[in-house]
């Protein structure tokens, strides 16, 4: 396990700076493009905009209040650093919603608000997720449901948003719901681009000399089992290959696990179009039988062969 050093501290600082920049950009898109035209984002922010429309209560405060229960639900399951970054992102986001609220909106044209607001919001949300944060509590619940009931994260979030946009159609009119739905699709596509290929489901192949420790950390922190295989490099000789499937929100945590154990590990991350079967376990302490299997199934790794 790597010791904490200045490089790790700088990386963590960079994460928090990136999350802050993304949260500010997202808040700007919400208050200067979407809210003035009564166009909603999905998730908790969308619920907050509905409540703000009906009551006039500040959107920034509503965002914090509505997200708090979701964070409490996920606090024991998602990992301490994920929750810290999520809280940090949501606080920055809420503060800047209040800062941008009194400013004059950029445009009152619905089509411009949908197009540019959706793109800017996607950039902001994409940066937050890329650096390990989260702006919406529904994503946390979706990940927990995925771990416990095997429900796809993307489909769960979409289900929440369908309910929200249906409420928009009833309360604000069908045209507002259609504009909001279009904004949501634009935001989702831009978010994927900004996050550099962040998709619903990913597969990771890890070639490392520390297979047992990495596999154990993946199991205990992410609740994911791994397949352990023996491979051979043309130059480096025999290696251990780990294969696991995980959600897009867990990629950042996976990278942190591997970086802190074996910085020289080779990682290949690819998209997964479909999963058949079960492989997700409950995160927590590794049972003795699992630890024994890791020890038994991990082939010994000899030193690299010389040419």
H-E order: HHHHHHHHEHEEHEH
* Number of separate strands: 4
Q: Kindly, what is the distance between the CA atoms of the first and last residues, rounded to a whole number of angstroms? A: 30 Å
Mean pLDDT: 81
Rg: 21 Å
Strand order of the largest sheet: 2-3-1-4
Low-confidence stretches: 301-307
Largest sheet: 4 strands, antiparallel
Structural class: alpha+beta
Helix content: 55-70%
Oligomeric organization of the protein chains: single chain
Proportion in β-strands: 5-15%
Question: How would you portray this structure in words?
Answer:
The chain has 307 residues and is an alpha+beta fold. It is built from eleven helices and four strands. The chain has a four-stranded antiparallel beta sheet, covered by helices on one side. A hairpin with a 3-residue loop joins strand 2 and strand 3. Helix 1 packs antiparallel against helix 5 and helix 5 packs parallel to helix 8. The protein is elongated and about 65 Å long. The two termini are 30 Å apart. The C terminus is likely disordered.
Draw up the topology in text.
Layout: H1 6-34, H2 43-55, H3 59-74, H4 80-100, H5 110-130, H6 137-149, H7 153-171, H8 174-194, E1 201-208, H9 211-222, E2 227-233, E3 237-247, H10 251-261, E4 266-271, H11 288-297
Antiparallel strand pairs: 1-3, 1-4, 2-3
